[in-house]
Amino acid sequence: MRLIAENLGGERGGAAVFSGIGFALEAGQALVVTGPNGSGKSTLLRVVAGLLPKAEGRVLLEGGGEEFPSIASACHYLGHQNAMKTALSVTENLRFWREFHGEGRLDVEEALETVGLGGIGHLPFGYLSTGQRRRAAIAKLLVSHRPLWLLDEPTAGLDKASEERLAGLMTAHCADGGMVVAATHLPLGLEGAKALAMGEAFP
Ligand SMILES: Nc1ncnc2c1ncn2[C@@H]1O[C@H](COP(=O)(O)OP(=O)(O)OP(=O)(O)O)[C@@H](O)[C@H]1O
């Protein structure tokens, strides 16, 4: 499987945010996207995910076979929002996403244990602290069967131990043939990751 971007351009509100972005990512590789505030990291991830139209160029997934014929079918996008229903329990939220995305290697209980949230699956998601919410959103990655993780500032709100745990999970995902594209301001501890530096913010 291969994720390829060529001469990719993105815009917001009709104004160019970035242009001429290119990268190629093989199965098992990670790409860390850095750049100042407003340089277009989130926009790039959303364009790759297909949540925003691209302004120019192309981005595609090759070799996904019948199971993953497109980026949309292969990706799990984790944005700034965690995409969980606050009134549903943590377990109910994760069950929904497991069904929606396809069943990942871990079941809901195992994923919660893995992110250090064992025993609180019964709580409404809205009761969780900021960092616990992010950890539950990371558990969402583990219960889902999606090879391409698109992560927008995945460590936001995480404590040091959770940051290190996430680094291990991303490394394991890549070792398992997955791919990660992560926008970040902080080092993610991803050894051997490719790097993409977005330009200065438009004035
Ligand atoms: N809906 C919108 N309409 C107009 N401009 C927008 C819209 N959404 C974002 N922008 C602008 O697009 C630019 C890129 O924003 P984006 O969120 O992609 O940057 P970023 O690199 O992820 O920033 P940060 O590091 O602060 O998260 C910013 O200048 C932002 O103000």
Automatic annotation (TrEMBL):
Keyword tags: ATP-binding, Cytochrome c-type biogenesis, Membrane, Nucleotide-binding, Translocase, Transport
Alphabetized GO MF terms: ATP binding
ABC transporter domain sequence ranges: 3-203
Protein name, as recorded: Heme ABC exporter ATP-binding protein CcmA
PROSITE patterns found in the cross-reference section: ABC_TRANSPORTER_2
Record SMART domains: AAA
Superkingdom assignment: Bacteria
Pfam families documented for this protein: ABC_tran (PF00005)
Leader sequence segment: none
Annotated InterPro entries: AAA+_ATPase, ABC_transporter-like_ATP-bd, ABC_transptr_haem_export_CcmA, P-loop_NTPase
Gene name of this polypeptide: ccmA
